[in-house]
Specification:
Largest sheet: 10 strands, mixed
Keywords: ATP-binding, Nucleotide-binding
Oligomer: single chain
Order of helices and strands: EHEEEHEHEHEEHEHEHEHHE
CATH class of the largest domain: Alpha Beta
Radius of gyration: 21 Å
CATH superfamily of the largest domain: HUPs
Protein name: Universal stress protein
Domain UspA: 1-139, 151-292
Shape: elongated
Strand content: 15-25%
Helix content: 25-40%
Number of helices: 9
CATH architecture of the largest domain: 3-Layer(aba) Sandwich
Family: Belongs to the universal stress protein A family.
Number of domains: 2
GO molecular function: ATP binding
Amino acid sequence: MYSRILMPTDGSPASQSALGYGLELARWLGSEVTFLYALPQVNLIPTALGDLIFPPDLDRQKATKQVLNQAQRMAAEAGIEAALEGVPGYPVPSILEAARSHDLIVMSPHGVGGGERWPMGLVTQEVLRHSPIPVLLVRQARQAAPIPPRSLLLPTDTSEPSQQAVRHGLKLAQRFGARVTFLSVLQNPSTLIPMPPAFVPRDVPPEQAEVLRQSYDHGLEALMKQAQAAGVEAHSELLRRDDVADTIIEAAQDHDWLVMGTHGRGWLGRLLIGSVAQKVANHAPKPVLVVPNRPQSRPA
């Protein structure tokens, strides 16, 4: 699992924190590491007369070498041989292309993408949308999650689309010797209706809420059986809350990693497609592993 790890970097403090954590993980797993720095071939400068196009300046080319050399020094200090790739192109397509020959991407939710020219989180959000392999987001060094992680939080809406992340999380738990907690959020159905608030009922009929609760109970029971069959210590929690992201962030405080999928049936179906995803990635107190619900180019 994770025999080849890709680590995009731009030399920013946030990116360096992710690299440091990724190198510790690679050392524990015995993984190969590739550092990637993308250098756009053109710069667009908006003016009153239109965009002026300039080739990358020598300072940026020098910065590429400095960033990769810094990453190489970090790898050497960790006792890891790492490949260096400085590629011409924009960050998102460069990362996605390189991901084809790797098993895992380790990056920060902030910083990667060339500093001030890229809005905070934009590169990460696009990588999450399209990556064919899992992405481990490390927000800051002081998250202090141990390696290997000993406790994994698996948010799930118990639907079939979310099962791939669950299966991946159970494999990780086997590899790391970790315990898992399945977390489902029983969200008030009225908050899911796409209508103006004035037309949405404040309360859900008790019988409808009970049907939803039973559905989640049955789903969590099935997941507990999967964990038992895999020989993994597991617990489950069903919470009734309206704010899914805040619930996940709060629960993550008691775990080392948060493992979640990109798609689901209910609240999880919207989770990694918009603002909720960014909120979890940016504010979760521990590393977040995002598992794509699409076939991977390499088995994990």
